[in-house]
Amino acid sequence: MSAQWRERLRTDVPASLVVVLVALPLSLGIAVASGAPVLAGLISAVIGGIVVGALGGSVVQVSGPAAGLTLIVAQTVATFGWRGACAITVAAGVLQLLLGASRVARAALAVSPAIVHGMLAGVGVVIVLSQVHVLLGDAPQASALANLRALPSELLHNHTPAVFVGVLTLAVLWGWRAVPTLAGIVPAPLAAVVVGTAVAAATGWDLQRVDIPDDILAFDAGPIWPDAAPSTLLAAVGAVALVASVESLLCAVAVDRMHDGPRVNLDRELAGQGAANVVAGALGGLPVAGVIVRSTTNVKAGGRTRLSTVLHGVWILVLVLVAAPVIELIPLPALAALLVYTGVQMVNLTHAQQVHQHREMPVYVLTLLAVVVLGLFEGVLVGMACALLLSVWRLTHATVRAYQDEHGWHVAIEGSLTFLAVPRLSRTLAQVPAGVAVGVELNADFMDHAAVTALHDWRTGHERGGGTVEVHELHHNWYADAITGQRAPARKIHPTAWLLPRVHRAVPHGARERLTRGARLFHRHGARRVGPLLAELARTGQQPTQLFITCADSRIVPSMITSTGPGDLFTVRNVGNLVPRDGDGDHDGSVPAAMDFALNVLQVRTITVCGHSGCGALAALLRPGTLPAPMPHLLRWLQHAKPSLQRVGQVGDGDHLTRLCQQNVVQQLENLMSYPGVAERVHDGRLELVGMYFDIATSRIHLLDPTHTRFTPVSAR
């Protein structure tokens, strides 16, 4: 025997035995709760282990009768009879095989987890309400609501031995974890059923017990196609196939995160489940699905390959053939208690909390209630409808608010503006008084024709009434493009969408390698996002609105701090963001050259000078003797900053450098006015000069007021 097989036997055989201890009592209980023969649950456990274990796409998932299918199986049995239900199971298996062959398994993952968790919670509630009556020694009612109505009377007036055995079994289930030494060896379901069975046998109480046919091999419960309307049959087949498939695939994905072996093949898993259901239905078994409790037990017990799953089915078959008299000693109240415990566990508070965090609680609650009140299939449909409506609401939801501050009236609009948001938009815009100046902060990721029309009609009416409206679009120019008749781009692009993650510092190689990796990253991500915009700019040419003069400091990213993108800024960068005065021949001429091009070719209407905190060039001007080496070119260039130093003086407090950096901006604006072309345009109102200061430590932008006396921070509002 090879070392590989010896390792498999060493890990998978013990794991398969542990899974049997959990699967056997659960299979019996699920069969009883489904209204099916007890042997049907054992048949499905065997088929689920052997067939799905051998053919499925997951190496560790354990399949068998699932509690999540209990309600739908019970409804199918009540409608078509047991043998008709077997035929439905076979047909559902065939449908699963076709779906697996069509490679659509991943489509099942599109079902919202809120629906799945709500469905399982609803099934858990139904199981609890029905099995409590069995635990109390009575028969369950026809519906969950009937079970709920009859429950108070059962609890007050029932004190039979069945109650004692059921409550004792529940107590062992909930208290077993308090005995960690035993809990690590014997699973709680097995321990609880053994205790309940031992007490019932020792007392000799007359209780309903598991009934297995004397000749198991002669068990005749094969499928008979029921005589019913085709639409009813198709609905039943689709319901069994859908629920079994979704539960199996979600379970497979969840279990896949728990081990480091081969990853699951979902299409193969779906086909394996279908094959198992064909065989199970043909032999008189319950529908088969992946079960999270058994699968988790398998992984935790050390199961690593298909061998543990297949062997667990073999061991159950051996037990049924050899130890049927022992299984028949199990009282039904003990199995009912096990199902009550399982049903409570299906209402998973952790899942509910996760759903709540993602704001999908309405879907979860409505699915749960609909499953309890209407039925499983109807509950899933209600949940899907609710999830669809919630998604549509989120996609079309827009936040619109009007407010007034010290700067006047503002309207802030965020989200997707569609016709559904027009009533809210109109109500909010109506709050703005007539005749006032309004700034509209439009951060829309989409605007349809109705929204554009509503906003533009209000703007037109407000301006006719003497007011003014300025629309500032912070995302894509949906409004501006619509009212000017321009064609909206095929894909919206955020102004800073071209920015990419910083990777250069993480690359321990040379500059060429860092640049190469950065270029590859741009090709993979940035080029795809900004490509349409660059293609448009290549066709139309650049049309920037301003000349932006700033420092060469690597910490200053003009497009980032101004939320602009390609084509918006004509940028000049130099050490100290300096503008030599006109007529000063001791400079390189690059700044005047850029100004000539910006003013005469690009026709910019704004020139911005942006300084920043902690400027190294100005610090060197303050303390020239601190430079690490002779830098004649730098010192010659910094002569243009001497007037800035004279504005603040040589000596000051701890904020001396900050005041120098700010006054340097003021000085460069004055230097700009020494150029006749700039001064002429400023006096004519064709050009505006703006001073900006960026505090790197606080990420705050300050603008110089028109009087050039102080910098004021820009409000985030």
TrEMBL record:
One Pfam short name: Sulfate_transp
Q: How does it sit in the membrane?
A: Multi-pass membrane protein
Its UniProt entry gives the catalysed reaction(s) as: hydrogencarbonate + H(+) = CO2 + H2O
Question: InterPro entries from the xrefs?
Answer: Carbonic_anhydrase, Carbonic_anhydrase_CS, Carbonic_anhydrase_sf, SLC26A/SulP_dom, SLC26A/SulP_fam
Q: Where are the transmembrane segments?
A: 13-32, 39-60, 80-102, 114-136, 156-176, 183-205, 233-255, 275-293, 313-342, 363-393
Question: What keywords appear on the UniProt entry?
Answer: Lyase, Membrane, Transmembrane, Transmembrane helix, Zinc
Asked whether the UniProt record includes Lyase among its keywords, one would answer yes
Which EC class is the enzyme in?
lyase
Write down the EC number: 4.2.1.1
Question: Where does this polypeptide localize?
Answer: Membrane
Enumerate the SUPFAM superfamilies for this protein: beta-carbonic anhydrase, cab
SLC26A/SulP transporter domain: which residues? Answer: 9-364
Family, per the entry? Belongs to the beta-class carbonic anhydrase family.
State its role.
Catalyzes the reversible hydration of carbon dioxide to form bicarbonate.
Q: What is this protein called?
A: carbonic anhydrase
